[in-house]
Predict the 3D structure of the following.
Amino acid sequence: MRRGVPTMVLARRAPGVVAIGLLVFAVAWVASKAFGKGFGLTGNGPQFVIVALNGLSLAALYFITASGFTLVFGLMRVVNMAHGALYLLGGYLALDLIDHGLGWWPAALLAAIGCGALGLAMQQLLLRWNQGQDLRQALITIAVAMILADQMIVRFGGEPKTITPPPALAGSVSLGVYQLQYPAFRVFIMGAAVAVAALLWVLIRHTRFGMVIRAGVDDRGMTSALGVNVQLVFAGAFFLGALLAGLGGVFGGTVLSLAPGEDDKFLLSSLVVVIIGGLGSLQGAAVGALALGLVEQLSAVYLPSAYTNYSVLLTFVLLVAVLAARPAGLFGRTA
């Protein structure tokens, strides 16, 4: 039996390895055509570097936002359809605090904590009493998302707004190729995504908190019988997931914009990332975010001009292809 274990592990990881290989191949193919000419591509090397970096920074933003979603949805099996609303609320809270004279860093921290507190209140007051009832939880969080969306329109209006980045990250950094400059804040987001991934991996895999979460998901009754306060741990996990959504909103509002509809967009992107990567898998969320970010940016620029308007469909083509080959996601576990 033990001889079969490595084979099973390799078989389970093979789809993820293949997906990463295909993604690298696709990017390399576009790069070869971008630096040369052919197939209707421009042959503009500097443009490819910028577009690829835009894809990586967008993937980093998707990962930061979706990591909170995968923590709540994947590990706790809670369908939080208000995750996108928490994302947008985090950005608006930071913007409001900055407009009242607070610096970017404390505003980002307070906005993220505020979203975490709101998520915790939602979990304790509305979701805790409906554990295991997925449809009811989904309907409750949809209602919360609609209420938050309407209130944000009333408070902040419908015009797109942008958060000014902190002075230390307001400039550009030299890339060392083609004499290109790239926004420092986008580079910071990529580094922040790596830091979030490392911290969550350590938290879930190498701390008692993470062990209790995983044990509570698998067998809540037995975990409680061992004297563990499962509800307290789940509350902490929900707080962390909502905090990451708010933090993603601060980053997104700084590098993109804040406007009605962004909540739905980032809820959809979080769902796509989690479905592609597999429920509860951090490495899956990272691969899913990377695939989604690069596909969106590269297709918007490098598809033939006659098909540029269909670039958004490639997101769903990616989703369908993954689900057809691996219904549980690239790194997901079948029941």
